[in-house]
Amino acid sequence: MNKFLEWWKEDKRYILLIKALLMALLPVMCCVVTTAVEGASIGSVYLPSSEWNDELFYYKQVESIVEFGYPQGYYGFNESHGLKLSFAAWSPVLVLPWIVWGLLFGWNMLSPVICNILLMTVAMFLFVWLVKPNWKQLGVLTLLFCLYTPFVRYMLSGMPEIICISHLIVFYGLAINYQKAPHGSKIAGLFGISGLLTLMRPYMLLFLLLPAFYWVRDSRKKGRMWLGISGSGLVIGVVLGCYAMIKHYFGAEYFHPLFFTDWITTFFDEGFGRGVENFFGTLYWKGKDFYAHTVQGLRTGLASGAFFAGYMVTCAILLWQSVADYGKLRKGKLSADKTEDVRAQLIAEAHLAISFIGMFFALLLMYKLTEGSKHLLTFMAVGVFVVSMMDTKFYKKAVLLGATFAFLYTYRAVDPYDYQVPYVTEERQIQVEDWQVRFADALELTKENVPNYDNAVMWVFNEQSAEGETMKWQLFYALPEGFGISCCQKDFVLANFDILQCRYFAVQSGAEVDARCKEAGYIELSRDKDMVLYGRY
Question: What is the pTM of this model?
Answer without folding.
Answer: 0.94
